[in-house]
Specification:
- The protein is of the alpha/beta class.
- It has one domain.
- The strands form two sheets. The chain has a nine-stranded mixed beta sheet with strand order 1-2-3-6-7-8-11-10-9.
- Strand 6, helix 7 and strand 7 form a beta-alpha-beta unit.
- Helix 3 crosses helix 4.
Length: about 290
């Protein structure tokens, strides 16, 4: 095998050290993304403070109802262990984590025709702030293995990397509860589609950020308690100072296909791992006031 085809030694050693192959970072088969029109991949880290570091900075009501705990209980231990391992790598060595992530995306892009990437499946990390360095060893390996050419440079983030190298048919999108004027500016610059998440009527900080989102043409997603599976959402809702169309967010996960100025309606899904009080549910859902 030509030397260029060999995995960089730094990557190989790091995978062994952390017991984490780059091929296993992203998930490509899950109810969240299986309804999408394009093949999709999603990254799951361990949410909120469960990894020892807060990966969901503005979590409040959602921390008690997180879909991290959904799915069959018999698979929880293995799932949680994998998410914790990935989170510890991200927390302790973000630069190496981003290299593994890049390799995984390149592999899925070329071998599985993956076109949609969600980096915050169960976290709320600001991947806009994670610089990524491409050196000759890494770029040679990627080109030899996947036929993708990246110029050697330091990039502002992984979105900048793909845009700067003219790989523009990848869709990066996420939900977030962390928003600012600067993050909005950066997300639009790097074509990273964001949907802001409503977190309940008792979270004043979140309500203020909902207004910031909508005033900047960023859609808001919210859970509805009284809309059951198979039922349709009402056409519009009066929310804060906005009259907004409701678009069904359970039909697919590709939020970039939705309107910029709307409410994404999501039917409330009860976590399976523990009992949830009615008070938490009422606080969290948009149709309980």
């Amino acid at each position: 095998m030509k030397s260029a085809h060999l995995k960089p030694l730094s990557i190989k050693n790091f995978e062994i050290q952390e017991n984490q192959k780059f091929l296993d970072l992203l998930t490509i088969n899950q109810p969240k993304i299986n309804k999408n029109s394009l093949k999709s991949a999603i990254l799951h880290l361990s949410p909120y403070k469960t990894s020892g570091r807060n990966l969901c900075e503005n979590a409040f009501n959602c921390s008690k109802l997180c879909l991290h705990y959904s799915g069959q209980k018999m698979y929880h231990n293995a799932k949680f262990k994998a998410r914790m391992r990935k989170s510890n790598i991200y927390n302790n060595n973000p630069s190496m984590f981003m290299r593994l992530l890049l390799l995984n995306i390149c592999h899925l892009y070329k071998s599985k025709d993956i076109k949609n990437i969600r980096l915050n499946g169960t976290s709320d990390c600001n991947f806009l702030s994670n610089k990524i360095i491409i050196n000759s060893e890494l770029s040679s390996f990627i080109f030899a293995r996947y036929g993708i050419h990246f110029c050697n440079s330091t990039y502002e983030n992984i979105f900048d990397l793909f845009l700067s190298n003219n790989i523009i048919d990848l869709n990066f999108y996420d939900y977030t509860k962390v928003l600012s004027e600067e993050k909005i500016k950066q997300s639009k610059l790097f074509k990273y589609d964001l949907t802001f998440s409503f977190d309940g009527w008792n979270n004043n900080k979140n309500l203020n950020l909902c207004n910031l989102a909508l005033n900047n043409n960023i859609r808001v997603a919210a859970c509805f308690k009284h809309v059951k599976k198979g039922e349709s959402f009402q056409d519009h809702i009066r929310f804060l100072n906005h009259c907004l169309k409701i678009e069904d967010g359970d039909l697919h996960d590709e939020r970039y296909r939705n309107s910029n100025y709307c409410i994404i309606g999501l039917r409330f899904k009860r976590p399976q791992a523990f009992k949830v009080s009615q008070e938490y549910i009422n606080n969290f859902c948009i149709d309980t006031i």
